[in-house]
Amino acid sequence: MKVLIVFVSSHGTTEKAAHILSDFVEGDVEIVDLNVNRHPDLSQYDAIIIGASIHGGLISRKEKNFIAKNLHILLSKKIALFLCCMNEGEIAIHQFNKAFPEVLRNHAIAGGLFGGELIFSKMNFLQRQIIKKVSGASEDISKLDVDVIKEFANQFNKECLCEV
């Protein structure tokens, strides 16, 4: 099975999550950063995993455009969705639901909330000031959950095998 993991990462957390995930996903896995390749050829993949991150309550415009432009293709594939965010519980679920269109969420064989990170060294001055004011944090924080990533991969692998 040929699998694409596609994402947009501003500060590296979603990219890190995509690479960790790729270690656990079965098949021929390719990782594409939409910051580098905005138009990957989706026709060559059996399954597509879309990873996003939340900044200011939203996913990136590049990712929204990618999903909107390719929705018909995505709905013809096995897909899975993950979100990197610092929030937990109901707030994280709300952000996940807001990030991905309902039709895509309903079609997905797996969905995951991987946690997030605040990496101050990768933020600009304004971003650091906003994060300090909103969260009170002033140093790097990592809540990226490798166990959740493994569980997501296991569910994805199992669902892909069931549909073969």
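The above is record 1. Record 2 follows with the same two-line structure.
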Amino acid sequence: MYTRQVYISCIVAAMSISHTLLGLLEGGPRHGYDLKRAFDRRFGNDRPLHYGQVYSTMSRLLKNGLVEVDGIEAGEGPERKRYAITEAGITDVAQWLARPEKPEPYLQSTLYTKVVLALLSGRDAAALLDTQRAEHLRLMRELTRRKSGGDLADQLICDHALFHLEADLRWLELTAARLDRLASEVRA
């Protein structure tokens, strides 16, 4: 089933963690812990970053010259590094922000594959579409509730998800209407 967690995970996976952390550093030097908190507050409502991901990303950015260590503080635990973005990092973020994202047409979706496999195996593809439609509607209700109680950022994230789910629903309806024709083509 398509859940909110899966959808939000796709959004987070699609965005560049490296560039997001670099962008957060443009506001001033920060420790890895502070970067994680800022990321989670702005972008990680449903999928917060793991500390290991923050520090491995910062190590790569450091190695690539996009950040530098701005200071090291000794404490009770391990030393805390404070990172600052370099000029090369600022340029990299600016280029990333200016580059349009490639639209993902989802030409070979999992839903389509399931429908075809159901038809090929003699299973009830209409029931599969009905079950998926119900799950989409459940998630849309949940996102609509979340949107009504959220701040502007949460509303925009929910709108993005809702528009994609609406497109999926239109596809489900169209596929259900063409199911007999698809079944005969698949079996031919």
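The radius of gyration is 22 Å.
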